[in-house]
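[job 0412] stage=fold_complex status=start
inputs:
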Amino acid sequence: DAGITQSPRHKVTETGTPVTLRCHQTENHRYMYWYRQDPGHGLRLIHYSYGVKDTDKGEVSDGYSVSRSKTEDFLLTLESATSSQTSVYFCAISERDSDSGELFFGEGSRLTVL
Amino acid sequence: KNEVEQSPQNLTAQEGEFITINCSYSVGISALHWLQQHPGGGIVSLFMLSSGKKKHGRLIATINIQEKHSSLHITASHPRDSAVYICALQRQWEGVRDMRFGAGTRLTVKP
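[job 0412] stage=fold_complex status=done
writing structure:
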């Protein structure tokens, strides 16, 4: 199994509070991704990173920011959580972002915003 | 119309049955992935296909590029196969970041 750790695994918070989710990898893969998973929807990309300090927006980036100060860590921050951000968040890593790349996922972080 | 459509959405089977999950898509692709997600768990990659067929244990994945269709088969199903199975596309000339995911098929195998 790819070495990907997400923390926290479960969090309940209140509307308006900041939340940070952490993804840590031990594979030294260049590319890291944050997805959210909601009922009735496929996984949707929030942000991704193609190297230290190099990040870009995905399909559903509004309300989220990310940072990557080290190869192994990719942080997802909700500056002011809203109930619409209640979801399960998955981090993923890949050696390549090309059409032959393969994704490896973390265990997920379940966030509930009350 | 979604680029990736999976059927059925939900599937209940008895232990030992042969199971088929379908994935249809509408764009050119470079690869199709089948993923497995156990309840409350992470997501695991089962197969990555660009043509033909792949087999791993009791799982078989096939793809027909001309018909834009892929199937995941499980032979001699077991309760531990109960999970959500997700089809994901890598579109032609695009990278992993542009992967498109189906909504998933929830499989329940009863003993």
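[job 0412] summary: Chain A has no helices and eleven strands.
[job 0412] exit 0
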